[in-house]
Amino acid sequence: MRELIGVYDADATLWGEMSYWIGARLGQRHCSLCDITHGLFTEKSEWQACAAALPVPFTAFHRNDQPADVRACIGNQLPAVVARTDTGVVMFVTADELETCHGNPEALAALLTSRLAAH
Fold it and tell me: Model's pTM, two decimal places?
């Protein structure tokens, strides 16, 4: 594994960010990866510490700015975490698995660390 890449189910535009933020507050939008990595306005310090402790770099993208090889792997299965390996990009954590973390950065870090150790 060379890198882990998370992809949010939100767009990286001013309108996309505002639309997601408002929709999330009204219960109309939900991204479990956003819940894990971000608080009300900024990235959670707990997530920053967890990501820094991972044995490989973790990079995050939004659905509209993800690299083409990541998009080809994920398709519409958002949010998700993929792993970039020497042979390509592979699904690493699905949307359902992100949901089981219940917004907890430490839970995602534990899941990632466990999977990395198995590879």
Answer: 0.86
